[in-house]
Amino acid sequence: MRLDADRPLAGLRVVELGNFIAAPTAGRLLADFGAEVIKVERPGTGDELRNWRLYAGDTSMLYRTINRGKLSIELDLRTEEGREVVLDLLRRSDALIENFRPGTLDRWGLDAATLTEANPELVVARVSAFGQTGPMAARPGFAAVAEAFGGMRDLVGEADRPPARVGVSIGDSIAGLYAAFGVLMSLFDREQRRRLGEGPVGPGQRHVDVALHEAVFSMMESLVPDYSAHHVLRERTGGRMEGIAPSNAYVCADGHSVVVAGNADSIFGRCMRAIDREDLASDPGLATNAQRWARRDELDRAIEAWTRTLPRADVLARLDEAGVPAGPIYVASDIVDDPQYVARAMVQPLPVDVDGTVQEVLFPGVVPVLGERSLPLTGAGPDLGAHTHEVLTRILGRECDCAACRTDVPGTSTSTPTSTPEETA
Question: What positions carry a catalytic annotation?
Fold first, then answer.
C-alpha cells in the first residue's frame, strides 16, 4: 500500500455504484483523502445528479461537487459483460459503496455471496432508505422521506406553520458520512486482524448497512429520551433551539442578519450589557436558562431592537468585543470573500467546462483539515465515462480500442437505459 502523509487513504481502491447524493458523498470523502474511487455510471445517462440544478451545459455543479476526485466509467450492470467487469474490479479493490434499493444488485447477479467469492475481504457499504432488513427494507425513499421518518422534519420551521425542510439534502449527507465511517472502521478492523495474525471475519461481517432514516434519527439528540423519561414532545421553534435562550437570528439596520447565541449563564449578562440593557443583565428572573426560555420573546425583542439600529459589521464588532458568540448569516457571495475561509483554503478554484467554455469555478475545500489548511482539491466531478479506457487498461489489463471505446468495451453501450424505481434508494 502506498503511503502519503498528505493523503492518508492513498492506496485504497473503492468502487462506487451510487446515484444521487448519499453513497456518492461517502465516495467523495474517501477520494478527498486519497482513495482511488471508481464511479460506475449507466451508459449514456450516468448518475441522475448530473441533471439536478443544471443551469447550463450537460453536467451540474452539484454533480461536480459531490463526485470530485473520482474516476468515471460507463458500464451496464444489467449485462453479463458489465457484471464481469465490475467483479474484476472488486477483486482488485478494498471496498464497494452502493445505494440501490435492497435486492437490486442481487437481481443483477451481484449478491452478497458472489461479492464474497470475488473478494472475501471486500468491505461492502450499502446505503438505502430503510436499511437492508426489517418490514420496510424494500421501500424506496429519498432524503426528504428519511428526514421526516427520522424525526427531523417535524422540528424545522415555525410552530404555526407546516414543517419545513433545511435547504440541502442533509439526510443524504449524514448517511454518506456514516457510510464512509463504516468503510474506514471495517478496513481498520481488517488491518488489525492482519497485524495480530487473526483470520478474516465471517461472511457478512464486513457489510456496512446505513439507512437514511436511521442516520437522521441518530442526529436527533435527546428527542426520544426526553419523550421516554418525561413524556415531552419537542416542537418547532423557528430560528430558536427549544429550551435555549437567547439564541436566534436578528435583523440589522442594513438588512443583513446575524445569529446571536447569548444563552450560557455567564455570557447572558455580557450580551445584555452589550445591547445596553443592564436591567435585563441584573434581573434575577433571568439568571438561569429555564427562566430565560420562559421569557424568550421579551429577550428576542430586546436584542433585535438593538441590532436594527446598527449595520451588521458594527453589531458583530460590539458583540465580539463583549465576548458574545455571534456571526453573520452568510450567502455564497459572503463565503467566497471571507478571510477565514480564505486562510484555511476552504474555497478553491478548479477548471471546469461550463457550457463549452473552461473556466475557474470555486468549490468547497476538504474537511477535516489535516494541518493548517484544506488539502488541495484534485479535480471536479468527471465527465461521464472519462476514465473508462484508463480503468479497463491500467487496472484490469483489458484491451480497449480508444477510437471505439463507446461501442466495443464489454458492458458499455451507446443506448440510454431507462432507470426504474428499483435501481435507486
Answer: 172
